[in-house]
Amino acid sequence: MAELPMNLRDDNISEETKTLISSLPRERDSQGKLCKYQGCWYYYNTLQALINFQTNFQPRDSDIVLASFPKSGTTWLKALAIAILERSKQNSDDPLTHPLLSDNPHGIVPFFEIDMYLKTATPDLTKFSTSSPSLFSTHMPLHTMKEGLKDSPCKVVYLCRDVKDALISRWYFRCKYQNKQVAGSILESMFESFCSGVSFYDPFWDHALSYWSGSLENPKQVLFMRYEEMKTEPYVQVKRLAEFLGYPFTKEEEESGLVNKVLELCSLRNLSGLEVNKTGKTWMNVDNNSYFRKGEVGDWKNYLTPEMETKIDMIIEEKLQGSGLRL
Ligand code: A3P
């Protein structure tokens, strides 16, 4: 079996974090040891990275954080944000210099707890980003991430996706990096973990609710976006994103077709066809092409039984009751 990515392991933990873990709720799944910290489940190395981030990250007010539950379209959101910010810097005579053409979106926008703070508590941040604004990303829930942002007014964009599609996407992704056949038995066990709320970054409902509440409390700081809306009305949504980030498309840019160019550059078809995404790997040794699959809404219908569908829908309905959030 392929070695697990470092963030899923438990071999890089300080004595202090060991003591903390011993006081937390703990579980085990087929990949490793999990503990529940601030309401969310993490593998131990990820918890260490997250604590490193909370303690040591020095935000700048202009920083932008792209947040999501795993397999919700993070790669797409990163690509769009990069393209939106990058357009002010681009030399139109030389479009081949665009960073998306030579790196995967995850190589350009690092995760706090997966890339930056995983190996060391005090990373050299210039290695990750020197430009302003800097783009970062995370799968942590909002309340946990905010501890690392201290009181900085950094903008946060959350991308939410139908949880059944995210589950199927996660199943494929997991089988791929573990070099396993895409087996129904793995999906069944992931489904059970999801329903019990005990799985990496779960419970999903609390995750989504943290950002939902944050976006209601402070809409200028937290933008709540949906994968499905990006699929059905990409033009409107990319404009909404650009506006929120403080880089709205001008009338001239719209008239010149730039919004469509950004969408085309960031389309699944285009990104997945780029050499860097066909052959490259992230620094955690995950193939770049694992981040691109079908990108369809409702693909879960091909895999989940009606019983599974009903169970997930009932759980989500119950957990979101009274919140105003509908999924
Ligand atoms: P599927 O597995 O359903 O196809 P993440 O980026 O959070 O890891 O999520 C991966 C999911 O987003 C995968 O979904 C992938 O195909 C989809 N995706 C990746 N890039 C995309 C893009 N440019 N446009 C739309 N969907 C994209």
Q: How would you summarize what this structure contains?
A:
The chain is α/β, with parallel strands linked by helices.
Describe, in plain words, how this protein is organized in 3D.
- The chain is α/β, with parallel strands linked by helices and 327 residues long.
- It has one domain (6-162, 203-296): P-loop containing nucleotide triphosphate hydrolases (Rossmann fold, 3-Layer(aba) Sandwich).
- Helices cover 47% and strands 10% of the residues.
- The chain is built from 17 helices and seven strands.
- The strands form two sheets. Strands 5-4-6-7 form a four-stranded parallel sheet, with helices on both faces. Strands 1-2-3 form a three-stranded antiparallel sheet.
- The model has no long low-confidence stretch (mean pLDDT 93).
Helix content: 40-55%
Count all strands and give the number.
7
Low-pLDDT runs of 5+ residues are: none
Structural class computed from helices and strand pairing: alpha/beta
What is the fold-level CATH name, i.e. the topology? Rossmann fold
- What's the domain count? 1
Give the CATH class: Alpha Beta
Which strand order does the major sheet show? 5-4-6-7
> How much is the average pLDDT?
93
Biggest sheet, open or closed, and with what strands and sense? Answer: 4 strands, parallel
User: Gyration radius, to the nearest Å?
Assistant: 19 Å
Bound molecules: adenosine-3'-5'-diphosphate
β-strand amount: 5-15%
Q: Element order, helices and strands?
A: HEEEHEHHHHEHEHHHEHHHHHHH
Quick one: CATH superfamily? P-loop containing nucleotide triphosphate hydrolases
